[in-house]
Amino acid sequence: MAQHGRRSARRWAIGTVAVGALLAGSVAIGVSASAGASFSDDFEDGKSDGWSKSGGTWSVVSDDSRVLRQANAGSEHARFFAGDSDWTDYTLQARVKPTGYGTGTDSAVTIAARATSATTFVRLALLPGNRAQLQAVSSGAVRVLATASVGTGTGTWHAVTLQVSGDRTTATVDGTTVGTASGGLPARGRIGLSTLRATAAFDDVSVAAGGTVTQPAPTTPVPTAATAPASPTATIGSATATTAPSPTKSTSASATPTTSATTAAAWPTATGSVKVDETTEVSGTLDGGLKRYFGIGDGGQSESQDPMFELANGATLRNVIIGAPAGDGVHCTGSCTLINVWWEDVGEDAATFKGNASATYLVDGGGARSASDKVFQHNGGGTLTIRNFQVEDAGKLYRACGNCSTSYERHVVLDRITVTNTKTVAGINSNFGDTATLTNITVVGDAKKSTKICTRFQGTTPGNEPTQLGSGPDGTSCRYSESDITWR
């Protein structure tokens, strides 16, 4: 491991480091942060720029050297993420010092790899009682892959590694292999540090790349970091831009929407990061150049979080990656357009549409992941069109509000949508006159055809819950035929 005396601060580099030898047996702890690593942070600059926080109380403090500390013992899930969502094969290593475990059975201090959201990743967990586990976490559900008796005591620094290659992962603590497991892992994702009802310090975090991602060629011209904003009139509160990595990609091309119902666009690579501390108000057009915006809210489902972006009537938001936390996503106060917007980890909602009865909204391209409830919430009136869009790991892609103070008639048009591990595509209120028109819908990996394409509800008044009436095409409210749905 790298020593405390160095002042290397933070480095991002594009390249590939051979780590194949790590697969031969126990993972050795010897790749220093300066030996060609794709990412490293020893926090010696006193900052944690480039990381995104979800929960907990995080700060850089002195502990012989500068370290990252999570000090909130009561935080159920305190998470710190960095890196790129398209990283595939790599070795993550760090020094970790648990400073306090809780009394519950779920108390842990962890490092994570291939994090596709705040609740999906593979992780190495240090547990009380001198135990460690290799775990796969999917939408918050934990699957134990391996357990070992190793030193995990408080007040002691432990050298930990987590290596992912293909569908195989290996974890070590102080040179002892916790376990190796195959199958059921996320294919790619960022790195993370976290505590569960525990406190800890982290230092000397580094990533050594061990694979290459080849993106499918996009079918339309792609935006790049050089794309000039189209005269945005946006105010970004206390925003700080940093450079984002792309260590394992063989191409830096970013994806745009496809025009096929059966081929989803590749998720784009962020061209940079923007930490936002208050809502960004947009009037006119804001082109984000595919930077990742993050920093508002707690990453959870709590109501009344501030939005990351608030769009005035007629505003356009384009080429933006919304990371975590992102509060209540995007609010459209009137008609609006969202083009090539990607939500990596939906918190409360991805976007809420609040215009009047004549408002029109367009979502063209992009995608959303990890929405435990809804992706798009339609609280106002008017018509929302969603096309060339993909959704993964969600409750509902679209929901017309069933108990808002004003019972608008709402309409949604969905075309060329790719759906993966999502319970419902559209939910509407037939008694309010709502309609959902669906064409070119592709449902991936649902052999039992359990995804509901269109569900009808009996809308009600504030404080009450809508009653589900039924699902499927009816020619009136749910407007589609079976030929509009492809099960793949």
Automatic annotation (TrEMBL):
Residues 457-470 have a biased composition (Polar residues). Its EC number is 4.2.2.2. The keyword Secreted applies. Residues 43-207 form the 3-keto-alpha-glucoside-1,2-lyase/3-keto-2-hydroxy-glucal hydratase domain. Keywords: Calcium, Lyase, Secreted, Signal. Residues 211-266, 457-488 are annotated as: Disordered. The keyword Signal applies. One of its GO terms (molecular function) is pectate lyase activity. It catalyses: Eliminative cleavage of (1->4)-alpha-D-galacturonan to give oligosaccharides with 4-deoxy-alpha-D-galact-4-enuronosyl groups at their non-reducing ends. One of its GO terms (cellular component) is extracellular region. Its cofactor is Ca(2+). It is found in: Secreted. InterPro entries: AL/BT2_dom, ConA-like_dom_sf, Pectate_lyase_PlyH/PlyE-like, Pectin_lyas_fold, Pectin_lyase_fold/virulence. Belongs to the polysaccharide lyase 3 family. This is pectate lyase.
